[in-house]
Amino acid sequence: MFWYSEEVRNLHRCGRYMLGKGGKRKFDEHEDGLEGKIVSPSDGPSKVSYTLQRQTIFNISLMKLYNHRPLTEPSLQKTVLINNMLRRIQEELKQEGSLRPAFPASAPPAAAADPLGSSSREAPPAFSQPAPAPCELGGAAALEACLTPASLLEDDDPDTFCTSSPAAPARLAPPALLPPEKDSFSSALDEIEELCPTSTSTEAAEADGPKGDSSSGGPGAPQRPEGLQEGGRPEDPKLMDSLPGNFEITASTGFLTDLTLDDILFADIDTSMYDFDPCTSASGTASKMSPVSADDLLKTLAPYSSQPVAPSQPFKMDLTELDHIMEVLVGS
Amino acid sequence: MKSPMETKKGKAVCGFHNAESLVELGWPTMPDIISTVEFNHTGELLATGDKGGRVVIFQREQESKNQVHRRGEYNVYSTFQSHEPEFDYLKSLEIEEKINKIRWLPQQNAAYFLLSTNDKTVKLWKVSERDKRPEGYNLKDEEGRLRDPATITTLRVPVLRPMDLMVEATPRRVFANAHTYHINSISVNSDYETYMSADDLRINLWNFEITNQSFNIVDIKPANMEELTEVITAAEFHPHHCNTFVYSSSKGTIRLCDMRASALCDRHTKFFEEPEDPSNRSFFSEIISSISDVKFSHSGRYIMTRDYLTVKVWDLNMENRPIETYQVHDYLRSKLCSLYENDCIFDKFECVWNGSDSVIMTGSYNNFFRMFDRNTKRDVTLEASRENSKPRAILKPRKVCVGGKRRKDEISVDSLDFSKKILHTAWHPSENIIAVAATNNLYIFQDKVN
Predict the structure, then answer these.
(1) B233: chain A residues, CB-CB within 8 Å
(2) What segment(s) does the record annotate as region Disordered (chain A) (predicted)?
(3) Which residues are CB-neighbours of B324 under 8 A, at least 6 positions away?
(4) A84: helix, coil or strand?
């Protein structure tokens, strides 16, 4: 798919905007916007900004859980706090009526976090459902914002690919609930095509609501193209309703969970970065992906990129596309 | 048992400060990041632990009539390797040798005793001086080889002769294998016979004489680890009541326990928690409420807690809210998302009381540290940095500009260096002398005598 490789290239190129973890860091002078004020979900127009922030924090939290030094045991306090954060966001999303609740860090660094080594819990069944990266569930969060790191959210510089300018929210598309699975890839494509002409129509998105559901999907990485919906909408109750399948929520943080490859691939990869609206991308408007999100994804996927994974479901995806993606991943 | 490490006393530098502003003289850079700083009970000794498992002890020079200006210099007294890196074969993980905490025992004879701990093992070290050695043995020949006893025909009693002062450190006890999680605190009991060590989920009580047993007095590990939402972050014994201790949690609560109530102190005697301020609620409310340090006042009437943005003083008799709250760096409140991203939000700052419990001190970023006078309600921000102050110059207060026009000499929030954090500070038990650890550098400030 042409659009796909375009995305990946952009993401890769913009990877340098990602700020390193920890270490010295000076704040940008333009810091403002999102971090300035913590908005409450009840504010009208700032609801998008709230969900944007929530989404970001959720993604950052996921990254943290999988990004620790493997040599020594990670701090239990840090793990617990991050897990609590993820749980809280998940609860909120649940309450907001999302039918595809965020996947908590159900498979946190279990191997490292379980000091007793006595974990014998099997990967919960929910793991077999490819969790669409929980992030987009939230109903109204801007898609691109899914993996936008805080720093970019604070940065109003239009030169970045991030659409965080204050005017942007209106144009940010909510994450159409996307089908995470490969097998619904083609149906998602259909949606996109349908949505294209009516970029601001939310109904269309709803109608086509991602059929994402219960079949297990392929590897998280390149996936799911989704119909991006132009026009921010503070909430998508209808979207939620149209969601098929009910994913199980894995309530546990899985301190004792054995982290299987499946868990990693299906549970943690946030593929929402690949969401976008093909129509608007052509027109070059707001739906540019956040470059940093790519970096995030790459970081997540990098450890696993060397592991050959046979997708349990066939993708309807070009082999060349896959090659390109693997190049990017391995190269990161 | 490791052979004692010896060191000769060395020269170092010192600093001065007065009550209003500080005079400082930087310390030679230590080889590794300092991870703990602690004065002993008289203030004569100052111990530092570092990331490489070393302990360096400084001793204060006796006041000399000749050098009134330079009274109380701290010089290197002893250096030894306390902990080595280890490998946990069961979990295939390294155990860091970083010294998390040092606590001194009160001095009971000529030797000094201290506890030092890394993530897993507590050690009791004896630091003693040797300034005489026996000479005159006739059991060895000139080359040091043992003589054949048949050739020794006289009995010669060795004589003690003075020698250069040597300071030896020997490990006297090793308290190991009692903690599954990372030890964050140790605290010596006022009975001087027991001490406690606390990790994320458990607190153990030890007797100094017994290394193969410890009593578990607090256990908050849930049956199902997946239900874990709270960990222990710090613990300390009451300074006078040997049955009482407190421990803080990652949810911003403090529990006071009485060991007389039951063997396992799972039920607290008092529970200190401040209700959340709804206007300040954010995603990070829980994380910034996590208490990184808890300290009893010298009087034993108050406890002080440090969370990410504030220092709070609690009266032991009032559980529902602190009696005082001090903002350390509230300008960071709007930056929490970034600080979460770069992990700074998890930094564990410590806090200390001065000897009279009238002033409290804690660290911040950009090598700043803050002091709050509880009586006058005044506070000051100072910087531990050699670039900005000449030796023996009075340190001038710093100010962070939070918005609007930045005045000269002010620093804007965006220019703060978050890699320069002051996590560990110590205050002399009776005098106005403070020790501030800034990454690899140790600064000691003294009151200017005027």
Answers:
(1) 77
(2) 100-132, 157-183, 197-244
(3) B312, B313, B374
(4) helix
